[in-house]
Amino acid sequence: MNKIKSLADLKKLQTEVQSKIKLREKGDHSENLIQIKVSMATCGIASGAKETMTYFIEELDHQGIDAIITQTGCMGYCYAEPTIELTIPGQQPVVYGFVTKAKAQEIIEKHVKLNEMVDGIIPVNYSSIDN
Amino acid sequence: MADYNMHILVCGGTGCKASQSELIKSNFKTRLNEFGLSDEIQIIMTGCFGFCEKGPIVKILPDNTFYTQVTPEDVSEIVEEHIIKGRKVERLLYKDPESKEHISDTKGMDFYKKQIRIALRNCGFINPENIDEYIGRDGYAALGTCLSEITPDEVIRMIKDSGLRGRGGGGFPTGLKWELTRKSVSDQKYVVCNADEGDPGAFMDRSILEGDPHSVLEAMAICGYCIGADKGLVYIRAEYPLAIERLKIAIKQAREYGLLGDDILGTGFNFDVEIRYGAGAFVCGEETALIHSMEGKRGEPTVKPPFPAEKGYNGKPTNVNNVETFANIPVIINKGAEWFASIGTANSKGTKVFALAGKINNVGLIEVPMGITLREIIYDIGGGIKDGREFKAVQTGGPSGGCLTKSFLDTPIDYDNLVAAGSMMGSGGMIVLDDSDCMVAIAKFYLEFTLDESCGKCTPCRIGNKRLYEILEKITEGNGNVEDLNRLRMLSSVIKDTSLCGLGQTSPNPVLSTLDHFYDEYLSHVTSHKCIAGQCKALMHYSIDADKCTGCTLCFRNCPVGAISGEKRAPHYIDQSLCIKCGVCFAKCKFDAVLIA
Questions:
Q1: What's the CA gap between B39 and B42, in Å, rounded?
Q2: Of chain B residues 205-234, which have a CB less than 8 A from chain A?
Q3: Is residue B119 within 8 Å of B211, Cβ to Cβ?
Q4: Alpha carbon of B101 to those of B60, B96, B143, B207: distances in Å?
Q5: What is the C-alpha separation between B458 and B463, in angstroms, rounded?
Q6: What global pTM score does this model have?
Q7: B88 touching A, CB under 8 A?
Q8: Which of A4, A31, A40 sits opposite B257 (nearest CB)?
Q9: Other residues' Cβ atoms within 10 Å of the Cβ of residue A67
C-alpha cells in the first residue's frame, strides 16, 4: 500500500474505491433508480444474455448512469431471448425481446436517457406478485 | 479487478458469528466457485446489522434482499434459486408479524423504518477489515478536511454547535470537553477512547468497533488535532476479542496508508493509536479509574477535580470520549453542525444507539433520533413484548439507571427527560420487562452487579451497597417489614451522597426508581408476603387442586426433587418440605390443577 500524502490524494483514492461499494449504495435507494432485469435462464444465456448484461453494466457505468442491473430467471419468452425488463422509476416495467448489443445500445440511448420507447417491446401478458 | 455485479453481505458481528456466519460465508464461496461465479459476485463479511434476533443475516445487493436466520445448509438454495434463477427464497425472508407477509427489503421492515443511522452508518454495509471500503464512504475525508482547511478552534466550535453530548452515559457536551483539554497547557496530551462497555445487556460500542473501527480511529485523530495530542489510546476490555482484532487490523491499515503516524496527509500533524486492554472491571468505565488502569495502577477512581482534561493519563491533560461519541464526529464534520443539530430535541441532538434486550420480540441494536418515544422503540421497532405478555417497565442506564414505567411510554427520550423520569440515558442498554418480572428482584439483580463491581475504595459503596443488598434479600425471602422499605430509601440516599465516584453515587438508582414506581409491589412483599410476578420463590406456595387433578402422573415424573407423590388416577400431593418451588409442575400440568399462592 502506498502512503496517502495529501488531501487531494485521499480524494483521488476515494473516487477509485467508491466503485467497490457503489452497487451497495444503489441498493440502498433502489426505488429511485432505473432497474434492468436480464433474463438469464438456459435459453437466455444460450442466446447471449450474458454478453447483453455485461454490456449494460459497462455501458451504463461508462456513461455515468446509475442503474441497478440484475439477472433474473426465465420470463417465458424463450423465442425472443435475450429478454430484458426495464423499469424507469414511477413507471410500469417494459419488456424488450431480442436484446442484442445493438438493441441494448438503442435502448440506453432512447429509452433510458430520453424515456422514449423503442421497437421490440413484448406486451406483458401476466402480472406478477410483488413482495 | 473485475467489477462485481452482485454483492452478498454476511453479518460478521459476534452474535451472527456465534451462529456460524463464518461457515455461511465459506459455503457461499464454495458454491459460487462451483458455478463459476466467483468473479462476478463478491462476498463481504460486514459488521452487525442490528437485527440480532433473526441472525445470522445475509443481505444481497443490488436488489436489497434481506435474508434472516440463514443456516449454512440454506446457502445452496440461495445460490441456486436467488443468484442463478433470480427467485427470492421466500421462507428465509422476514415475515411481518402483523400482516404475516414476507418482506424482502429492509425499507419495508418496521425494525428499520424509524431508525436513523449515524454512528452505525457503516455497520452492516462495509467490510470492517477493508480500509478502502471505509474511504469509499467518505472515510478519513473529515480528518483530511480538518487538517488541511479548518483550524482546531473552528473544529471545536463545530462540535459545540452540533450539540453532541457524551454517549457513554453522563451526557457531558463533547465540544466543551475538547475545548477544556485544548486550553490545558502541557508538552504532551492524550486522546483516550473509552471502550470499556460494561452495562449488563449493552453491546453498542462493541458493535461499532466490530463493524466500523475506522470511524473511531478517524475521530480520535481529529480530536488529537483539536486538543494538541499526538497519541491516542483505546481502552478496551479483553473480553471483546473480535472488536480488538478488527481494531488492530484497522490501525495497521491506517498506518500503511499514512492516515496514522507521522506527517499525516503531508500536513505535519502526527498521531498514532495504541490499544490498552482492560480486565473487564465495570468501574474502569469511569474515566479516572480507566486512566489509573491504563497507567498500570489499580482500577480505582479518584476525586474530581482535577479532571482528566487537566491531569489525566501520566498526569498529562487527557480527553476521554466513548466509542459512540467518536463515531459521530466524522459525520458532523462532513455534513455540518447544523445538519446534526437538526436531529433530536432541544438539548439532546443527534441519535442514540440502544441495545434492545429482555422480553422483546426484536432483540438487537438500533439507532434512533433523540426524542423518539419509548412506545415507538418497543412496539414499532422492537415488535412488542414477547409471547404477547404485558409491558411492565424498561430498564435504561444499566446499574446506574432506573426503570421507566407505562406512564413514560409516550415521553420523548432524551438526556433530560430520562433524568427527570428517575432514570438516565446511560450507555444505551435497554432491558424490557414484562408482567412476569418482579421489580424487587430486578433491583436486587442490579445491586448484586454493583456489589461485585465495587472497587471497595470508599465505605458507602463497599459496605452500604452490601447492606442494601441484604435488605432486598430479606424482602424477597419474605422476611421483610414496612420499616425495611424506609431503611432502603434512607440508606440509598446516604450512599448516593457520600460515595466517591459515579459507580457508588448511582448504584442505589435501581432501588430508588423501583421504590418510586412500584411501591405497591414492595409493599405486597413485606405485608402480605406475596410476589405478584411470581418470581420470588421463597414467597411461592405450590399445591395441587384435588378436584382438578386427574392423576396423570406428569408432575410426579417431572419433579426434579421427588416432592410430588400420589397413586395413578388419584389426586397427587406436594410435600412442602421438599418443594424447591421450581415451577415445573405448574408448567407441565395440562389440567390447571397446580395452584400458585
A1: 7
A2: none
A3: no
A4: 19, 5, 45, 30
A5: 8
A6: 0.85
A7: yes
A8: A4
A9: 21
CB-CB under 8 Å, A41 with B265: no
Angle of CA points B536, B542, B548, to nearest 5°: 145
User: Which ranges of B295-398 would DSSP assign to H, the alpha helix?
Assistant: 323-335, 337-341, 374-375
ipTM of the complex: 0.77
Q: Do B135 and A13 touch (CB under 8 A)?
A: yes
Q: Which domains does chain B have, with CATH numbers?
A: 6-110 (3.40.30.10), 131-340 (3.40.50.11540), 351-434 (3.10.20.600), 439-526 (1.20.1440.230), 540-596 (3.30.70.20)
Architecture of the domain delimited by A29-122: 3-Layer(aba) Sandwich (3.40)
Going from N- to C-terminal start, the domains of chain A cover: 29-122
End-to-end CA distance of chain A: 44
The nearest alpha carbon in chain A to B140 belongs to A10
Residue B258 sits at the chain A interface (C-beta within 8 Å): yes
CB pairs under 8 A between A and B: 110
> Distance (Å, rounded) from C-alpha B298 to C-alpha B302?
11
Helix or strand or coil: residue B259? coil
Q: Look at residues B109, B108, B200 and name the one whose alpha carbon lies nearest to residue B383.
A: B109
Min distance B62 CA to chain A CA atoms (Å) = 4
Least Cα distance to B6 among B38, B33, B30, B29 occurs for: B38
pLDDT tens string B17-52 = 999 999 999 999 999 999 888 888 889 999 888 888
Contact in structure between B392 and B409 (CB atoms under 8 Å): no
Contact B390/B415 with Cβ under 8 angstroms? no
Residue type, A84: I
Round to whole Å and give the CA distance between B111 and B443: 30
Please indicate whether, in this complex, the C-beta atoms of B61 and A27 are within 8 angstroms of each other.
yes
pLDDT per residue over B62-96, tens digit each?
A: 888 899 999 999 999 999 888 887 788 888 998 88
DSSP H helices in chain A: 7-28, 42-46, 49-62, 101-106, 113-114
Mean pLDDT of A26-50: 81
What's the rounded Cα separation, in Å, for the pair B324 and B355?
13
Alpha carbon of A91: minimum distance to chain B alpha carbons (Å): 18
Contact between B190 and B229 under an 8 Å Cβ cutoff? The reply is: yes
What is the secondary structure of B153-193 as a DSSP string? Answer: HHHHHHHHHHT-B-TTSS--BHHHHHHHHHHS--S--EEEE
Cβ-contact B342, B348 below 8 angstroms: no
Best to test chain A binding among B96, B102, B257 (most A CBs inside 10 Å): B257
